[in-house]
Specification:
CATH topology of the largest domain: Methylamine Dehydrogenase, Chain H
Oligomer: single chain
Strand order of the largest sheet: 1-28-27-26-25
CATH class of the largest domain: Mainly Beta
Helix content: 10-25%
CATH architecture of the largest domain: 7 Propeller
Number of helices: 8
Largest sheet: 5 strands, antiparallel
Number of domains: 3
CATH superfamily of the largest domain: YVTN repeat-like/Quinoprotein amine dehydrogenase
Number of strands: 32
């Protein structure tokens, strides 16, 4: 069990292929790799939520419910077809919540899409399903929002047993007020009528989910200005120039953004043409006159992109969050909000308050957040390239498309370091930091994270200044001849397993294996933490029940850190073995005596906290066994 990563790195040069690519792994075991069901082949899988023995996997075409009670052979419980990207999912008790943002999403989950610019059939917001019969979900409510729901966050307030709250992060254009009353596309951060510069909070009565409704629209972006950003990588600048020239030559649309000339994304072209059709009170497919009108207004749109509302004022900051992670036990949320990482006070769940905002010119697009279990640190990820680009190339800076690690004190974040996947990926692999979760290794901050076609990386950020990778899994590119969207969207720890939503290849399940970085006792202790349900963006405090695995995990950490002599570590292990085979008063007295001595030793230790944690684990064991 070498503490040195394998060299050369086996992830470099892996053979490509959609379902038969070569694989590399280190300190992880593949439990199963399950392809999508026929109806979801060739579609885009997205995020995952968990309840009981089920993994609920979102998809741009709906969602799939997998029974993972036998993780070596997951079985499909239902494949629910309901187009409307990106179908982020969360779950609580008998309710399933699904995000919808695209213009083709229908209230009836039909596959025909929505062709009209304004339609009462369109769903842009959150769908609510009753999953009492999980094989036959029943849509019981839909909450419409002005910008749709790119992602959402479920907040379970420990003070409110009757309701749950949903924070909506909508990043699409504002829909017409003709389609949803009250929607106004006003590009002013100070105008209270604008559907921009805010999030929505939905309150869901658990007994009557059909009464779910928006209860507030907190304007958490007030007084933020556009942050400094980094330029593109040199090869991206050259490639962009080629794409812009090709678009002009072939009749495409080019506009100017704050980072220079860009090909206008297809979805924005579609949205603008739809708006022009609506403005002339038309219907159906845009005409050539609509296309010509769009070309006429592109200079105005470009000026709006790069100029502030008031020429004497700075450009305004973000108008939405991409994702928000709430940590109710700490009363905090981390908002990954395009150009900023926000720290929010959520003690009143319906009215979050911004405590602090962090900007970083090395970050392109703040994407998601993860707190450590103590709520004393937060990690933000940067989705440079939007998840569709190759941003882990050997020419890319280590600070770009990475994770940024902060400590928290008095409601303020302090930056310490970056973590980025250490293995360079090819130009045919979309790769950047994406969704991950804590692994409940006691006394440490360890995380598993998806990196799209960069695979899955497990890293330790206990030392905020020196994070390091300690395990990984990777495949070769889906297509070694061109860049295409694929890879791990989310990789989360759930009840002893690492479950990964593979965008193209289906559902992957892994286990950690013992290594120089994580002992079997630490893995066993992690597996004692059981969730009834898990939504990673609704972070729950990790609590370890009393166990000998927990005590032994702390002993292993003490040994790894040379915090006691070898003889003393051996004595502690012998005490635990003897106590485990004893019962009643004999077990309790042995454990309490050992705990008392550890408390004394902690006074002169260079890591007193670890010795106190072991002593507390022994006392808990003594009480549990008495």
């Amino acid at each position: 069990m070498s503490p040195t990563p394998p060299s050369p790195d086996p992830r470099i040069g892996l053979r490509g292929g959609e379902m038969n690519a070569a694989e590399a792994k280190w300190n992880m075991r593949v439990v199963s790799e399950t392809p999508p069901p026929p109806r979801f082949l060739g579609k885009v899988n997205s995020d995952i939520a968990f309840i009981g023995n089920y993994a609920i996997q979102g998809s741009f075409d709906g969602y799939q419910v997998w029974d993972i009670s036998n993780p070596a052979h997951p079985s499909l419980k239902t494949a629910y077809v309901c187009p409307g990207s990106q179908s982020d999912v969360s779950v609580y008790k008998n309710l399933l919540f699904v995000s919808g943002e695209s213009l083709n999403g229908r209230l009836d989950c039909g596959t025909g899409g929505v062709t009209e610019a304004v339609s009462s059939a369109r769903l842009r917001g959150v769908r609510i399903f009753d999953i009492t019969d999980i094989a036959n979900p029943r849509n019981v409510a839909n909450v419409q929002t002005c910008r749709g729901s790119h992602t959402h966050t479920l907040l379970v307030d420990p003070k409110d047993k009757n309701n749950v709250y949903i924070y909506i992060s909508g990043s699409s254009r504002v829909r017409s007020s003709t389609e949803l009353a009250g929607c106004a596309d006003i590009p002013s951060p100070t105008d209270p009528n604008s559907a921009l510069f805010r999030i929505e909070v939905i309150k869901v009565p658990l007994a009557h989910p059909e009464q779910a409704a928006i209860v507030s629209s907190p304007r958490i972006f007030n007084n933020l200005t556009a942050p400094a950003v980094h330029s593109d990588a040199p090869e991206d600048i050259a490639n962009n120039r080629k794409m812009v020239d090709a678009a002009r030559a072939n009749g495409g649309f080019v506009w100017t953004t704050r980072t220079g000339e860009r090909v206008m994304p297809g979805f924005i072209v579609s949205q603008l043409l739809d708006s022009l059709v609506t403005a002339r009170k038309g219907a159906g497919v845009p005409t050539s006159a609509d296309t010509a009108k769009l070309r006429q207004i592109i200079p105005e749109l470009s000026a709006h992109n790069v100029q502030p509302l008031d020429p004497s004022a700075p450009n305004p900051g973000p108008t939405q969050c991409h994702d928000i992670t709430v940590y109710p036990a700490a009363g905090l949320a981390g908002g990954a909000c395009a150009g900023y990482g926000l720290l929010l006070d959520i003690k009143d769940p319906a009215h979050p308050i911004r405590l602090a905002a962090a900007a970083d010119s090395n970050f392109s697009y703040w994407h998601s957040a993860t707190f450590n279990n103590g709520g004393t640190k937060v990690l933000f990820s940067d989705e440079w390239g939007g998840g569709t680009q190759a941003k882990c190339r050997d020419t890319d800076k280590r600070e770009w498309g990475a994770d940024a690690i902060f400590t928290l004190a008095n409601g303020k974040p302090t930056f310490h370091s970056y973590y980025k996947l250490p293995a360079p990926q090819t130009r045919q692999e979309n790769c950047v930091a994406h969704n991950g979760s804590l692994i409940p290794i006691p006394g440490r901050d360890i995380m598993v994270q998806a990196w799209y076609q960069g695979g899955v990386s497990v890293f330790d950020w206990t030392d905020v200044d020196h994070p390091r990778e300690i395990a990984f899994f990777d495949r070769g590119p889906v297509d070694s001849t061109r860049l295409t969207l694929a890879g791990s969207w989310s990789a989360y720890w759930y009840n002893g397993l690492i479950v990964s939503s593979e965008i193209v290849r289906g559902l992957d399940i892994f286990e950690l294996t013992p290594s120089a970085f994580i002992s079997q006792n630490e893995i066993d202790a992690a597996k004692t933490v059981k969730f009834d349900y898990l939504n990673v963006q609704g972070q729950q405090r990790l609590v370890w029940p009393p166990s000998f695995a927990l005590a032994r995990a702390y002993v292993d950490q003490i040994a790894r850190g040379n915090e006691l002599s070898e003889a003393r570590v051996s004595a502690l292990r012998a005490t635990l073995s003897s106590a485990e085979s004893a019962h009643g008063a004999r077990r309790s007295s042995a454990l309490l005596a050992a705990a008392s001595r550890l408390t004394t030793e902690a006074a002169s230790s260079h890591n007193a906290a670890r010795l106190h944690m072991l002593a507390a684990a022994m006392r808990d064991l003594a009480r549990a066994g008495s």
